[in-house]
Design brief:
- This protein is an all-alpha fold.
- It has one domain.
- It has six helices and no strands.
- Helix 2 packs antiparallel against helix 6 and helix 5 runs antiparallel to helix 6.
Length: 109
């Protein structure tokens, strides 16, 4: 084997790509926001029913569900206000963007 080929073999080291912890969680959050926007655009009645279901729960479970679904519930409540359309959409996009930014995975330096 030539010297050049031998040097190439010793230098090449297979490394696994570094994946930030929390990538799966971020994917789930992005998917949940995608589902929320799709329901908002195609079937707002489904979101109305989900909100009515949430409000009809026993107090303990309602509080727990509010904590678990807070960004989406607040975005829904904002979208149901009587504000101008552009304001409602802007606030919902801001809520989604802030939530995804907070959920984004970070790698250690």
């Amino acid at each position: 084997m030539s010297d050049i080929a031998a040097q190439g073999l010793t230098r090449s080291v297979l490394r696994t790509p570094r994946v930030a912890k929390g990538t799966t969680f971020f994917g789930l959050m992005a998917g949940a926001w995608g589902a929320f926007v799709a329901l908002l655009a195609s079937s707002p009645a489904t979101l109305d029913d989900a909100y009515d279901w949430l409000r009809g729960l026993v107090l303990f479970w309602e509080i727990l569900m509010w904590i678990l679904t807070l960004p989406w519930t607040v975005a829904y409540l904002v979208y149901e206000t009587a504000w101008a359309d552009w304001t409602r959409v802007l606030v919902v996009v801001a809520i989604a963007g802030l939530h995804l930014a907070a959920s984004a995975p970070r790698t250690r330096a």
